[in-house]
Recover the amino acids of this structure.
């Protein structure tokens, strides 16, 4: 059974810092891994999806990497802004369509 | 940008009653999902639906739960004989396909069982 873990659970940084969020998974036989953003009381906004054959994906200031063999993915946020404050979730998809989610990293970017 | 819409945003129901949560997936999507998130816990998969039938379900999705696509646009989750532990945020999601296609989520329905 797939288990997904995100460390740290919470992170507070000053505006402008580059930061890395970590995601680890126990079953490396994934089809893809998806990163989401969740604002308080809101749904999940898809940020990036990395296929199992890919090493990284980029969208604007966001870069996600995937290392299947070590069971890890990272989300790199460049030049963080207060508007980036949210909870970031990673989710792994194995066989079938279900996503297995990590517990999230709650990010606070201070002005 | 197309989005998944869910109604109502908040539903309060007495224990033992039936509740129906509604979702309108993105219009050209073919795969539909329900997830839930109990307060302070991880998002958990409930069920996936394709071609008018359930393709996968979790242990949470017991015989009190059912899903339906009653017309070309709506996708519903019905919970019968609700229990206190059903209280959670329920998210609907849809995707254009599987494999390389991302799942897009709605804003959720907060279900409170009293």
């Amino acid at each position: 059974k797939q288990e997904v873990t995100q460390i740290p659970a919470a992170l507070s940084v000053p505006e402008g810092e580059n930061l890395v969020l970590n995601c680890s998974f126990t079953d490396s036989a994934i089809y893809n891994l998806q990163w989401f953003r969740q604002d308080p009381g809101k749904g999940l906004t898809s940020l990036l999806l990395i296929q199992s054959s890919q090493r990284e994906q980029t969208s604007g200031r966001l870069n996600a990497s995937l290392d299947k063999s070590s069971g890890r993915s990272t989300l790199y946020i460049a030049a963080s802004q207060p508007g980036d404050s949210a909870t970031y979730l990673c989710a792994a998809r194995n066989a079938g369509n279900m996503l297995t989610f990590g517990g999230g990293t709650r990010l606070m970017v201070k002005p | 940008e197309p989005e998944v819409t869910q109604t109502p945003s908040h539903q309060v129901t007495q224990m033992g009653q039936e509740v129906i949560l509604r979702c309108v997936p993105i219009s050209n999507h073919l795969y539909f999902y329900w997830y839930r998130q109990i307060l302070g816990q991880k998002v958990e998969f409930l069920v996936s639906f394709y071609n008018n039938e359930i393709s996968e379900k979790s242990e949470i999705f017991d015989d009190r739960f059912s899903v339906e696509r009653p017309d070309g646009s709506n996708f519903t989750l019905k919970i019968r004989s609700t229990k206190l532990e059903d209280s959670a945020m329920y998210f609907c999601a849809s995707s254009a396909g599987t494999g390389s296609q991302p799942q897009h989520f709605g804003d959720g329905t907060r279900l409170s069982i009293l």
